[in-house]
Input
Amino acid sequence: MAALGAAERKKILDAEISKYVKLGWRVNSQTDTTAQLVRDKKASCGVAFILALFLIVPAVLYLLLYRGTENLYLEVDDQGKVSRTATQ
Output
């Protein structure tokens, strides 16, 4: 199988990025064949519930103050295959 050129790989990556942007991800950085996407994580209701069992104040503070991010790294290889690597 012949290797794809940079233009074809960029087109595949752009289509993949467009799917993730619709799901709330933002492009942090991008090259012709790779992209790093990020999105804000929301607080976990399960953790808030456990904290609420002990004291209400920590649960409320957790829900109000927790701001994490998720990272997603996309890469298109020379065969046109998209690989995804997620990190917290």
In short: The longest helix spans residues 6-22. The chain has a mean pLDDT of 78. Residues 41 and 64 are 12 Å apart (CA to CA). The chain has three helices and four strands.
